[in-house]
Every structure is written in structure tokens, then in C-alpha cells.
Amino acid sequence: MAEFAHAQIVLAGKRAQYLARVPREYRNGWRAQLHSGRYSNHGRRIGIVGFSRIGRRVVARLQQLDTAEVLVHDPYADPDVVARAGARLTGLDEVLASVDVLSLHAPLLPETIGMIGARELALLRDGATVVNTARGALVDTDALTRECAGGRLDAILDVTEPEPLPEDSPLYDLPNVSITPHVSGSLGSETLRLTDAALDELERWVKGEPLTSRVTVADLGVAA
Questions:
Q1: pLDDT at 183
Q2: Is 3 assigned a catalytic role?
Q3: Catalytic residue chosen out of the listed positions 163, 190, 203, 209
Q4: pLDDT value of residue 37
Q5: Are residues 98 and 177 in the same domain?
Q6: 24 among known catalytic residues
Q7: Distance of CA 143 to CAs 146, 147, 210, 215, Å?
Q8: Choosing from 38, 105, 135, 147, which is the catalytic residue?
Q9: Residue 17: how many CB atoms within 10 A of its CB?
Q10: Which of 13, 24, 61, 124 is least enclosed, having the fewest CB within 10 Å?
């Protein structure tokens, strides 16, 4: 999931998903578009909502974009841990108001349902991209549809609410919206890593060695 999210963030900087869907009759104007500041990964500010297992891995991968600034919002994260990872912990409103790409990695809890609603989306800069590989219900679908239909925001959605979207959802036809069928998680040969990780952890437990992926009762309510 972290690999997929990182890839989508990088592609969002170039608006690659949008360019791939531009109707043929408008493609002669591509070259003129590319001179705008919206097609770049240099000096971008990226917001990560949720600094749990996946969010941490995304932040680590974003260090490859050496000119990017990464902001994190997570009420349970330690500012020092976030700083050592190469990001800065701050409030959600500051993240929303200043980022070029917003990537969601929060768990689905009663208090996170609809956490990115009309008010939050309105705080995003014109031209920002919302990347959701976490849970569709974190975002108000109607509010996101309005923002994307008006062309103010782009969206890259691997999860939606509902999932799948109704066949008549406007999101399917918007060139600035990319929708994939929940493929960011492990599929195909990727599932072998899950098996290896589980067996390796079981072997450490049997030997009495420290576990590398402990899940405690306290984690269950906040981890993603």
C-alpha cells in the first residue's frame, strides 16, 4: 500500500493521471499546459493524514523527493518521531491549507468518518490533489464530487464511499479523477510477503525474541 500511495503522489505531481484521460480533441493543447506550475514534483508540499504503519512508510519513501516538504497530521503521533522520519507534525487545518497533495492513511473509526468534508476540502489550495488509499468513508463523496467537477481539485481514489460507486456517479467521467478498484493492498505475488512476515514473526515469538510487528490492544483502535 505504501508503494502504491507513493507512486500515486509522484504521478500526481506531474498530473499524469489527468493527462492520460484528456480527450483526444484537446491533446494538441498539451504542450501549452505543461508550462504551468501544476506539473512538477520540485518543491512540493505533501500532507499525510495518519502516521501509522502505512503512513510512516509513505513518509519514508517521500524522502526520495529531496525538495519536498512533508506535513503530518495524527493526534496520536510523537512530534519527535515524525521529525526523525523527515516530516513535521501539525494540525489538520494547517496541512489542508498548505499542501499540493493530500494523502490519507487514517483508520476508519467513528470519529474519522467524513473527516475530510466540505469544510476541509475548501481549505485545500486550488489545484491540489486528494489521494485516498485508506478508506472511502474518510471523505465526503458528495463534497469531493463537487470540488472535482468544478475543476478546483484533482482526486486519485483507490477506495470510495460507497465501494463501488453507483454506475451513475459523475466521478467516473471526470478527467481529473482517477479511480482504481482497491488495488493498493497486496495482490498476486505480493501476498507472499504477508505469509513470510507472519511466519517470521511467529518464529521470533517461539524463540522468545523481540517482535518486529507487535500489535497491542491499545493499537487496535488507532492503527492503520
A1: 94
A2: no
A3: 163
A4: 76
A5: yes
A6: no
A7: 5, 6, 46, 35
A8: 135
A9: 20
A10: 24
148 and 206 in a single domain? The answer is: no
Q: What DSSP state is assigned to residue 47?
A: E
132-163 pLDDT, tens digit per residue, is: 999 999 999 999 999 999 999 999 999 999 99
Q: Number of folded domains in the chain?
A: 2
- Residue 163 among the catalytic residues: yes
* Marked catalytic residue, from 53, 88, 125, 182: 182
Alpha helices (H) along 85-216: 92-98, 118-123, 141-149, 191-207
Residues 202 and 139 in one domain: no
Please check the confidence at residue 88 and state whether its pLDDT lies above 90: yes
Regarding whether 86 and 36 lie in a shared domain, the answer is yes
For the entire predicted model, the pTM comes to 0.90
Q: With CA atoms as reference, report the closest residue to 18 among 148, 169, 181, 158.
A: 148
29 with 107, same domain: the answer is yes
Task: State the residue range of the domain holding 16.
Answer: 2-185
